Amino acid sequence: xxxxxxxxxxxxxxxxxxxxxxxxxxxxxxxxxxxxxxxxxxxxxxxxxxxxxxxxxxxxxxxxxxxxxxxxxxxxxxxxxxxxxxxxxxxxxxxxxxxxxxxxxxxxxxxxxxxxxxxxxxxxxxxxxxxxxxxxxxxxxxxxxxxxxxxxxxxxxxxxxxxxxxxxxxxxxxxxxxxxxxxxxxxxxxxxxxxxxxxxxxxxxxxxxxxxxxxxxxxxxxxxxxxxxxxxxxxxxxxxxxxxxxxxxxxxxxxxxxxxxxxxxxxxxxxxxxxxxxxxxxxxxxxxxxxxxxxxxxxxxxxxxxxxxxxxxxxxxxxxxxxxxxxxxxxxxxxxxxxxxxxxxxxxxxxxxxxxxxxxx
Length: 361
Known about the structure:
Layout: H1 2-14, H2 18-21, H3 30-37, E1 47-53, E2 58-64, E3 80-81, H4 86-98, H5 129-133, H6 156-165, H7 180-194, H8 198-207, H9 221-225, H10 246-249, E4 252-253, H11 255-266, H12 272-283, E5 285-287, E6 292-295, E7 299-301, E8 306-313, E9 316-323, E10 328-334, H13 341-353
Antiparallel strand pairs: 1-2, 1-10, 3-4, 5-6, 6-7, 7-8, 8-9, 9-10
Helix pairs in contact: 4-7, 4-8, 4-12
């Protein structure tokens, strides 16, 4: 009788739909979220969105206002600059090129760049693609000629001049040091390998397949109307400052779009190609502390077995995280530095880590 029951359960589970077998944790309600914060979630100025997915359901909670003048509440179409969260998309493109066996991750990046670009070396070692993607290249955090750029008009010529002139800060691969410049160089290698402009590759490989229509480097006039106004800690409106932008931190996106991307990370059946790409990014890593590893684009929490990335630019702060094991993903988007987006993300992860998973059937 017991054997018959086990066979019966096996048949049910093996024939269950993929989305049921991959069911994620229960998502929190608004009362739980407010209790978690311990104070008002609405910034005095600016907008905040906290978004969750378990692969089956999306929940987006909105607070504050999109603009100071109109006092309009944020919605699914509200856009935020996501800063360095842009880097996980660059890493995904790199992984997608690897599926076509176009490069060796541990080969010098100079092999995958136009001959017009000169790179420094140190200690007899050249920078590899892996070292760029995991922030151990020796490149400075930002180019030293960035402050000379007007607004966001920092050019490739200026960046190439920096690469040619500035010595590496340490021997490639010898230690971890976060670098925006590294991802600008990585984007140039991605373009060279893919033989297309970076923005075109991103659109064709990620944005179109996942229907992420509100994620872009350049916004339409309608999208500009949905872009949140950003503020510093004192509630003063901020303007765009000089930034490398692009693959390093130039994307604008919405909570709904980011959840579509995160769904691909936690569900193998959602988009098998992108899921494999993200798995590739997470597989290749180097330990940077007792509790954290730098992966391609992502950072892995070795205690919680989750992956995350944060970004901050011009008053906007953003954080995304996911756990394949617990089947959850979170995006926190803020247009006010009054709030600590990273702390909110950590609290949300802690909440979800203690929630029981949904029944599989």
